[in-house]
Amino acid sequence: MAVLKNKSLFFTTSPRTPSKMIPEIKLLHEKFSGNEWNKSTQEKFIEELATSSFFEGKGSPSDKAFSARDRINRAPKALGFVDLSPRISLTEAGELLVYSKRPHEIFLRQLLKYQLPSPYHKENIDVQGTFYIRPYLEILRLVRTLEFLTFDELKIFGLQLTDYRKFDEVKNKILNFRDEKEKNKGRYKKFADDNLTSAIFDIYSDRIASGKTKTRETKDSSIKKFVSTQKKNLRDYADACFRYLRYTGLISISQKNRSISVFEDKKTEVDFILQNVNRNPVFINDYEKYKIHLFSKVEPKLYTDNKENLIELLTKTYSLTKSELLEKEPEELKDIRDEIAQKHKENIISKQITQIKSYSLYSDIINTFNDIKNNEYYDTPLMFEYNTWRAMTMLDGGKIKGNFRFDDSGQPLSTAQGNMPDIECDYDDFSMSVEVTLQSGQRQYESEGEPVARHYGQLRKRLGKDTYCLFIAPIINPAVIAHFFALNKMNISYYGGKSKIIPMDLDSFINLIENSYRCKTQPNSSNIRQLLDTIINFSETAENEESWYSYIQTCTINWLIDI
DSSP class of residue 416? Predict the structure, then answer.
C-alpha cells in the first residue's frame, strides 16, 4: 500500500509510457498467474523480463525484487490491471488492456476510477484530509474548461488540486497566471520558475516550518535542496499525467509540445464523461468492494458504449448514413470509427512528409533541434526522435520510418519500443538504423551501447542488405566512441561481417541538414551512402577512436560543399 505524504497530487510515474506496461503485464500473467507475489516470484519475473524481446534496460538489476515491484505495484496495480492478492491474476480490465484491439478505451476507464485516497493509497497522518479526488478526471475537466492546459500550468497549479471541491480555486489561479504571463513575455522562464517556487513554499509550508526538509535521496536538509527536489518531483508527476491522458486518445498536444487540449471530434465524449462520472472517491476503507469497482471492464460508462451515440458520432463526424449503420453491432461500429480515424491520420502524416521533403519546414526543424538542446519540451526524448525522423525524411532518397507512435493529429505520441531502432531508413541498395539519445556520460555507454548494436544487427538480418547505423546525441561519450570504433573492426557473424555504426553529436548532424539545404541540387541516397562509406573506411586506417571521431565531425562540415 502506498502512503501519501505530500500535499500535492500524485501520479504514477512507472512506466513513463503507458503502452510499455502492456507486454510486461502479459508476461506476468502468462508466466506467473496463480503464484504469490513474493520476493522469489518478483526475482523470477525480472529474470524472465531481462531475456524478453521487448525489454529496455541493461540486463538484470542488482535488486530484482525491488525492480519488479517498481514495474508492477505502481501503474499496473494502481490502475486495476493486475490483482496481486492473494495470488497474481489478471483482472477483467487487465484482460482487455492486454488482449483487446482497443487498449486505450479500457485505459481511459481505469484512469477515471483512479482516486486518492483509496485502499491502495492511504494518507499519512501529516496530510490527513488533504485528498478527495479522482485526479485524471479533474485534470481532464481543467483541460476542457480552460480549453487548453500548459505543462507549466499543470506543474505549478494543477497538482495543487488535491480535492475536487477546490476546482474553481485552482482554475482561477491558472487564469490569473495567464493574465500575469502577458505582462512577463520577455522573462517568462523566470516568471514561471518564481511561481513554481512560490507554489512549493505554499504546498509544503508545514514541512518547511517544522524543519522536515530532508528527502530520502540525500542527507542535505537545506531549503534550497528541498525546493530543487520538489520541483523535479512536480515535473515528473505532470509529465506522467500528460502521457497517461494522451494515451486515451482524447487529448491532443500542441505542435510545440507544451500544452494539451481535447481533440475537436472528442469533445462530445469528454463532455459525457464530465457530466456522468462520479467525482467522489468510493470505498475508501473497503478493500474488497474497491477491488470489484476498480477491476470492472464496463465501468464507468463511456459515450461510445451506447450504440445510438456511436451512430450519431459516425454520421456527424464522418458523414456516414444512419441506414448503413443500424444493423451493425457496437464493436463493428467502433471498428468503422477506428478505420476512418487511421486513414485520416495516415493522410495527415502523408501531407506532413510532403511538406518536409519540400524543405518548407527546414527552419522549424533546425529551431526544434535548438530547443531540444535547451530542453525546452516537456517530453524532450520524444521530440528528439520525432524531429530526427523529420530531418532524415527531409534528406530524402529512401523510405524513412519512425518507430515512435503518432496520435490522431499526426503529432508524436510515444517513443519507439525497446526492441527496434528509433528510425529505419530503407534505401534502394542499403539500409540504415538511426538511434537518438539524450543520455550523456557513463550512462550513455551503459544504456545505449548494446541495444544500438543489437538493433543494427536485427535490421541488417531482416532487410538482407548492406546496413549502417547512425547514433546521435547532443554529446557523445568517449566510451561510446571507443566501443563502436572497436566493434566496427570485428568480424561478427551476427552482423554478417563487420558492423558499420557511426557516432555523431547533434551539432554535426545539424551540419548535414544545413548543408543539404544550401546544396544546389537536393541530395539523394548515393550522397548519403558516400558520406557513410567515407567515415567507415577511415576507421580502418585511423590511429585511434579520437582521430576517427574528429574525422567524422570534419566530414559533416564538408558534406555536399562541392556539389
Answer: P
Parallel/antiparallel/unpaired status of strands 2-4 and 121-123 = parallel
CB count in 10 Å sphere of residue 211: 9
Q: What is the CATH number of domain 358-558?
A: 3.40.91.50
Give the chain's length.
Answer: 563
- Report d(CA 102, CA 115) in Å as an integer: 23
Domain ranges of the chain: 2-295, 306-344, 358-558
How far does CA 539 lie from the centroid of its chain? 36
Distance between CA atoms of 445 and 480, rounded to whole angstroms? Answer: 5
As a three-state string, the secondary structure of 22-47 is HHHHHHHHHHHCCCCCCHHHHHHHHH
Read off the DSSP letter of residue 469.
E
pLDDT at 450: 79
May I ask the CATH architecture of the domain 2-295?
Answer: Alpha-Beta Complex (3.90)
Whether 492 has a pLDDT exceeding 70, the answer reads: yes
The model's pTM is 0.89
pLDDT reading at 320 higher than 90: no
Confidence band (pLDDT; 50, 70, 90) for 561?
A: confident
Amino acid at residue number 71: R
Instruction: Report residue 514's pLDDT band, with 50, 70 and 90 as the boundaries.
Output: very high
Least confident of 37-41, 73-77, 231-235, 441-445: 441-445
Among 23-27, 92-96, 277-281, 338-342, which stretch is predicted with the lowest mean pLDDT? 338-342
Of the candidates 514, 494, 511, 504, the residue with the CA atom closest to the CA atom of residue 470: 504
Taking each continuous run of H as one helix and of E as one strand, the counts in the chain are: 23, 16
Q: Which DSSP category does 118 fall into?
A: B
Which grid cell sits at 136? 485524471
Q: How far apart, in whole angstroms, are the C-alpha atoms of residue 392 and residue 166?
A: 47
Strands 259-262 and 251-253: antiparallel
Q: Which of 45, 17, 14, 21 is nearest to 98 (CA)?
A: 21
C-alpha cell at 85: 492478492
- Exposed e or buried b for every residue in 230-267, given b needs 16+ CB within 10 A? bbebbbebbbbbbbbbbbbbbbbbeeebebbbbbebbe
Instruction: Locate all alpha helices (DSSP H) within 129-250, ordered by sequence.
Output: 135-146, 151-156, 167-182, 188-203, 205-209, 223-247
Q: Report the pLDDT value the prediction gives residue 58, as an integer from 0 to 100.
A: 57
* Cis-peptide into 281, omega within 30 deg: no
